[in-house]
Amino acid sequence: MMTLKIAFRNIFRQKRRTILTALAMIVGFALSSVFIGWSDGAYSDIIEMFTQNRIGHIQVHGDDYLDKPSLYKTMVDYEAIGQTIGSVKGVEAWTPRVYSAGLGSVGEKSTTVQIIGIDVVREVEATRFDKKIIDGKVISAQPRHEAVLGKGLAKNLSAVVGDEIVIVSQGADGSIANDLYEIVGIAESGDDITDRMACYLHIGDAQELLVLEGRSHEIVVIVSNINRVLKIAESIETELGDSTLDVAPWQVVAKDFYRAMQADQQGDAIGRIIIMLIVAIGVLNTVLMSVLERTSEYGVLKAVGTKPIQIFWLVVCEVLIIALGSIVVGAVFGTAANHLLSIYGITMPQEFTYGGIKFQTMYAEVNARSLIIPAMTVMLSAAIVSLFPALKAARILPARAMRTH
Amino acid sequence: MANNDVIVTESITKVYAGNGVPVEALRGVDLTIQSGEFTALVGPSGSGKTTLLNLISGLDTPTDGKVWLSGKLLSGMSGSELSDFRRDNIGFIFQAYNLIPVLTVEENVEYIMLLQHVSKAERHRRVAAMLEEVGLAGFGDRNPPQLSGGQQQRVAIARAMVSEPAIILADEPTANLDSRTGADLLDMMSHLNIQTNMTFVFSTHDPMVMERARRLITLKDGQVESDVMK
């Protein structure tokens, strides 16, 4: 108790130095907190856009489709599978898709297209497909030989709403598949790669074209909390209980994207370490000065019977008390900054693309990580930084120390 | 070693390696001080008085020779053991008072007893009695910088004596005080010495201390030049 009392009172002896030490820690904490809040917010947006626009949170496929996609690897009775998935806790929506490649022609122009057969009602519910329509309308709920083209594809084919597109592909029975569809809308998903190829058809039309009646290649699942996606994927797998079905969370579906993000996050961690290193050097300097200034006092404490370990803890306690105070103040500033950035965001002068998805305004996120990680980092670096001065004080020779002024 | 020998030194030497040139501060000092003595180490500056006090108390280690305190050999004790030994057996009074500035008078006096895990009630009883004894009753809540030099030295005396150690080592205790305050404090220490039978060893230049001391050990060039019982 006395050690704590002395440590606490020592902090207020050199107010200017304490304020400087605390300021370094507060700035370090707040910067680190904003760094995490900002990058978590940005990554959440990127993941949300990436999953919502392209792959969903979880995908269910026929065995091995993900590694080697093929027209023939389909799920039969996908409606029943979908109903089972929909009953799993945490699943918000699901939607089936049929995929194939083909040749699309509008007037004189032709290009390769990715045929995406969608259940319009479910797709709107799951991926807000209607919000992606920038011209025209969504495909009708019933199959009416209507198509929506991705913005890039429409541009390549010089197609506008009201034109007709001829699609030539291969049917699952080996026949040549071709049909004529009315372009009813142009979609922009924010994902350039998808938009350059995507030709959305009603799932019924796609099944008819590709001779895949009653079958689908993929079921896209949207969950209510993306942070629980792995658990929910496990639950779906258990609920389905079918070894011929692959249940893959987005981290598996988009391995490369996920790895790139993780590498980016590691880069952010290095940035945070550099910030804390600068703070730690500043703190080390002030603590060392403080110990040096009080050498004589430590000598007296030792002379009257204070053990070296008690002197050691005295110095460590002083630094940790300042660190605790700094964490509280830093948390207030860091949270306030993250809160403001989560509302107003920062708009970049130009759009940028990540994982094929365009962004311009980035928002921060207020979360526990943005407080816990800086708090642990500040406490840990304060503890480490205090070790050397504390050892120095503990090892002081009383007679020599008391001669120091 | 007799039963009532509290300090025994055997051929202790101390060589400081200052700036590459070795300086011999003590050159083979043999000394025995018995319980209840009121002894002054005197001699010119650089004669080795403070060095001898530091070695006796284990604040420094001799280059050669041995020191026994209350029958215990100091050499070979670890830093922690020495701290415990000093805490329980030696009280210090320094020229510059050396109080803990962030603690109040009461807390300064109480500090050693806290290290000794003395109960709260006992601590308070002894602190109150000791402050009364040194004439500082009512000053318990003040901080050292709010006191005069004489008052601070009284606090230091109270701190040194409150845990009832066997030996009080006082390094130039009156050097920073005016003669009247110094004389008052010396009378007080002399009185406490008689009252409690604690052993007092001073290092001093002060004729007032020499006058009151019952034994005068004169050091010169790191050796005992004379040892006079009065």
Describe this structure in words.
The complex is a heterodimer of chains A (405) and B (230). Chain A has helices at residues 2-11, 15-55, 78-86, 120-127, 151-156, 192-195, 203-210, 229-240, 250-253, 255-293, 295-303, 308-344, 369-394, 398-402, and strands at residues 58-62, 75-76, 91-106, 109-118, 133-136, 146-150, 164-170, 176-187, 198-202, 215-216, 218-223, 245-249, 346-354, 357-362. By secondary structure, chain A is an alpha+beta fold. The radius of gyration of chain A is 31 Å and the shape is elongated. Chain B is of the alpha/beta class. Chain B has a single domain (37-48, 79-229), classed as P-loop containing nucleotide triphosphate hydrolases (Rossmann fold, 3-Layer(aba) Sandwich). In chain B, helix 3 (105-115) packs across helix 4 (120-133). Classes of the chains: A alpha+beta (405), B alpha/beta (230).
Q: Please list the strands of the largest sheet of chain A in the order they lie side by side.
A: 3-4-9-6-8-7
- CATH architecture classification name of chain B: 3-Layer(aba) Sandwich
Domains of chain A, number = 2
What is the 3D form of chain A?
A: elongated
Shape type of chain B? globular
* Total domain units of chain B: 1
User: Could you tell me the radius of gyration of chain A in angstroms?
Assistant: 31 Å
> What count of helical segments of chain A does DSSP give?
14
